Amino acid sequence: MVVNLILLNTEVSLSQALEDVSRGGSLFAIVITQQTQMHHTFTANITFGTPQEHRDVPPADAMVLVARSYEPYKNECQEKEREETARKAAKMKPSCKKERGGPEEGCLISLLADNRCLIAKETDEIINHLRERKERLMGSSTDSLPGPISCQPPWRPRVPR
């Protein structure tokens, strides 16, 4: 959170200063006057959405007010950002349709990886695709599983003593 301090002179009214702060993108404004300073309170202004003014608020209560007001604002901004990112990704993503009209296995696998729901037919397509791929790689039936794969070299280098 960024904080700016503005000391008003007699030429600028408080309402004008609050409008300027709001237009500048600040979400909150805390106003301290001689009277509120004597009472150890201040006026908390929420400048986004529907502007609100809370007068004679103790500092601790004002901080709670700011935190509670900021949380929904932050969540709304994050949701808008997610929607915008999804829109941009959708524009960049190539079409997931084959010429015959069905989804490509690669796109189905992407949907599965994104934890999206797939219908039984789509799941079967992924399974069949993986079986075919395994058969091509192994050159045999998918019913037989290969033996354990060893990452050790068949020989051990001699280390001089």
Q: Layout of SSEs?
A:
Elements: H1 14-23, E1 28-31, H2 34-38, E2 42-46, E3 52-57, H3 59-92, H4 105-113, H5 120-138
Antiparallel strand pairs: 1-2, 2-3
Keywords: Receptor, Signal
Biased composition (Basic and acidic residues): 77-87
Protein name: Nuclear receptor coactivator 5
What labels would you give this structure?
single chain, about 160 residues, mainly alpha, Rossmann fold, three-stranded antiparallel sheet, rod-shaped
Describe this structure in words.
- The protein has 161 residues and is mostly helical.
- It has 2 domains: 14-87, Rossmann fold; 94-138, no CATH class.
- 48% of the residues lie in helices and 9% in strands.
- The protein has a 3-stranded antiparallel beta sheet, sandwiched between helices.
- A hairpin with a 5-residue loop joins strand 2 and strand 3 (52-57).
Strand runs, count = 3
* Beta-strand fraction estimate: 5-15%
* Total domain units: 2
Mean pLDDT: 78
**End-to-end span in angstroms?**
63 Å
CATH class of the largest domain: Alpha Beta
How do the strands line up in the largest sheet? 1-2-3
Poorly predicted segments: 97-102, 149-157
SSE sequence, one letter per element: HEHEEHHH
Main beta-sheet strand count, sense and barrel state: 3 strands, antiparallel
Radius of gyration: 32 Å
Task: Specify the CATH homologous superfamily of the largest domain.
Answer: Anticodon-binding domain
CATH architecture of the largest domain: 3-Layer(aba) Sandwich
Shape: rod-shaped
Signal peptide: 1-17
Keywords: Receptor, Signal
Region (Disordered): 77-102, 137-161
Biased composition (Basic and acidic residues): 77-87
